[in-house]
Each structure stands twice: as C-alpha cells, then as structure tokens.
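I hope you will forgive my troubling you with a question about protein structure. The matter concerns a single protein, recorded as an amino acid sequence and a row of backbone structure tokens. Please examine both parts with care and let me know of anything in them that strikes you as inconsistent. Here, with my thanks, is the record as I have it:
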Amino acid sequence: VPQATNPNVIDLPSAEKSALPPDDYIQISLKPDATLTIGVNGKNPVAAEDAPDRAAVLRRLRALHEENPDYPVMISGDRESKYDDVIQLISEAKKMGINRVGLATK
C-alpha cells in the first residue's frame, strides 16, 4: 500500500552530493501535483511564490534573472513529477541565457 503523500512536500530523488549549493540561487520547485513555486534561497532570500502555470514561473524567472544575473537556478522536481516538465524548465532557463542550471537531490 503506497504511503499517503502530502502535496506540499517535495520528495527529491537521491544522488551523490557533487558540491555545496551556491550562496544565493533562484529556486524553482515542481510539486507532485504539478504546482510550481519560485523564489531565491541563500544569504539574500526572496520568499517563494506560487505560480499558476509554467508561463508565470518563466515571467518571474526572467525578472529574478534580470535583478540577479549571476544567480544560478536550482530546480527541485519531486520524484513523481513528469520528467518532461523538468526538462522544459531547464530548456527555458538556458534560452534566457542562464548558464548554471542544476537539479536538487537529497
């Protein structure tokens, strides 16, 4: 019997740690129910905001990137998220000129 899941908790896939996260970074979270949040984590945090759809996340990402062009992007996709949704976010970030895009793991 599968465990009951909390739709607000992101269950990250596991992987070996490659490096410490940067001091500040733009965080996009993709929850199992496909809802999205975006904000800034680190020493100068900006509270995460819910986004109604991918277009809204991309608008917010563009604004945050313009304000903080050196911040990398970290995508936290729940292990139950659709792979394509995560890949599309990476692709869109790269199109904006964001070269440092990573995937969060636990």
In short: The chain has a mean pLDDT of 87.
